[in-house]
Write a structure and sequence with these properties.
Number of strands: 0
Oligomer: single chain
Low-confidence stretches: 137-154
Radius of gyration: 24 Å
Mean pLDDT: 79
Shape: flat
Number of helices: 7
Helix content: over 70%
Largest sheet: none
Strand content: under 5%
């Protein structure tokens, strides 16, 4: 029997995570079900973990279908832009992580908590700059700014 390719294993994993039975997966891809079961246990695959993603995707598609054509175009463009920004942010984060790892390898020192916290804060601010503030962030900002504003107006700065 020929060795199973990584592409086949990727499909097997997706079917397993979709919730397909081992026998059905085995019949579809031609790999013995016990081999699939062993690999799933070894790599700690989650049986049926894609079910919520599938349900969410169906709901989103149904709701998208209720929009007028102009609304669909606007939504599709906004989603494309957000995906491009997310890809850029992920690439930037990987670059920062790579540079940090190189610096650690060169300096032969462990990163301090302050260094890691500063990097995390910087990445968080970058995300806010790329995607805008989330409602929770905006509320936090407003809740912290309001007392300062009241103090300034009252002359208590």
């Amino acid at each position: 029997m020929a060795k199973t390719s990584e592409e086949q294993w990727t499909k097997v994993k997706a079917l397993y995570e979709k919730g397909e039975s081992l026998r059905d997966i085995s019949d579809e891809v031609g790999i013995p079900y016990k081999t699939i079961d062993n690999r799933a246990k070894k790599n700690k695959w989650g049986k049926g973990i894609l079910a919520q993603h599938i349900a969410d995707s169906i709901r989103v598609r149904e709701e998208f279908g209720t929009l007028e054509l102009a609304q669909q175009v606007v939504v599709a463009q906004a989603v494309d832009e957000a995906v491009q920004r997310m890809e850029w942010l992920n690439k930037a984060n990987m670059t920062v992580a790579n540079l940090t790892m190189r610096k650690l390898a060169i300096d032969k020192e462990a990163a301090s908590y302050q260094d890691l916290n500063a990097a995390s804060t910087t990445l968080g601010r970058t995300k806010d700059n790329v995607f805008g503030k989330t409602p929770d962030t905006a509320i936090q900002i407003n809740n912290t700014a309001l007392p300062r504003t009241i103090n300034v107006i009252a002359g208590r700065s």
